[in-house]
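Could you please consider the sequence and fold appended to this message?
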Amino acid sequence: MASSTVTPSRPDRPPRPNRAFRQLRGQRSPAEFAALVRRAAREIGERVSCDARYIGRVEAGEIRCPNYAYERVFLHMFPGRTLTDLGFAPRSAVRGRGARTAEEAPCAHVLRPAHTTSDERDTGETGEAHEPYDTQNPYDTHHDHEESDVLRRAFMTGGGATMAVATLGPFGFAHDASTAARPVRRAGTSEAGALEEAVRRIRLLDDRHGADGLYRRAAAPLRAAYALLDAGTTRQTTADRLHSGAGELAVSVGWLAHDSGRFDDARSHYAEALATARMAGDRALEAHAFCNTAFLARDAGRPREAVRAAQAAQRVARPLGSPRLMSLLALREAGGWAGLADRAGCEQALVRAQALYDRGPCDHDPEWMSFYGEAELEGLTAQCWSALGEWPRAARHAGRAAELQDPHFTRNIALYTAEFADDLARGGRPDEAAVAGMRVLDLLGQVQSSRIQTMLAGTARVLLPHRRAGGVSTFLDRHASTPRMP
């Protein structure tokens, strides 16, 4: 793909907020509006996976014109309106960088000149510090060849910072993380932005496919992220973005380790994220690291540590002004109390979590919490009641979680359904448990998660004495023949 070397006809200027688009969002949170965009895309056969940050970039004016896929979705959502009506600039104005050759014309990306240094990008000397045209969003897998090219240039090999990755695999990461590094120069805004995109890419792929196939491939981007921190930068704002991005990436890689059963690795990654947060004075990142640490401690059989980590997260997060974040952290605390068999403590935390959730979303909700909706609330509540041995109550919440989950979150649908099957089995309803277990097996072709496989194996053991019940033997035979992750 050819890079444009044409200098813009006028110097770069700060983005102008898109107030028209913000008005269309109304009272919905960015994450809720992003979910509507994804739903509208499915209605017309497009494959965009919009998130809260993308909506924020549009509203901030960073994206002056959406790519063609998003254009079709937005015009479907708001029939009768033009891109201009939605607050975007005309495509001709945004892409007006001089004559384009026939080879360049289909390309949806405007890339920086190849000779531009990181410091130039950081200071805006090339006139392109803010990319006005929407390059292919990493959540949108409709044009993977374009996405790979952008990420390869910007994150994996771009800017002169040490990048340990040369080629991208089908998940957006390298097949081989052993490629040689290059000399380090200062990192700029493009590296910070690409690091943030890599974090979102990991989260999306985990939502769809689970952690097992992703964890080892994510190690190289994480090493590259900390190489960026070592490289330094000329601006404090860029340094803050790099610290936040590296810390969030450490949390994401830690979660991949956590969900694939590598608890020691996960603990190390979460500790790394926590240290990064404290060095940078980043409360949001610190709360996130504590949140995941609490979840890991619960799963690793350290419930008292789970309670303390969740309480620490709440102390850090309280000034951030996000009731939904506080709700999730209360659920993390509830899980710890349930592990300690403290029913009263668990119930109090669950009541607090529900009350905070009912206060609704807000603009202060962290981007990484896009997964936290009513389905996740129900699913985590089910886990608490299950830990307390309240199987019928747990099954009701788990079943509701599976029904409510957005189809985008394939991994969570499989998880909630596996919880539902296990609660039904332990609650004396083997035939219904077998039906739910078959649904999980149907999803395992798309999802690779040791957590889910372990849960399903436990359900199969509980159902063994009930082999003669309707459908149980079919489930057990199919489960026994299903390949396990190595």
Q: What stands out?
A: The chain is about 60% helix and 0% strand. The longest helix spans residues 236-259. The chain has a mean pLDDT of 76.
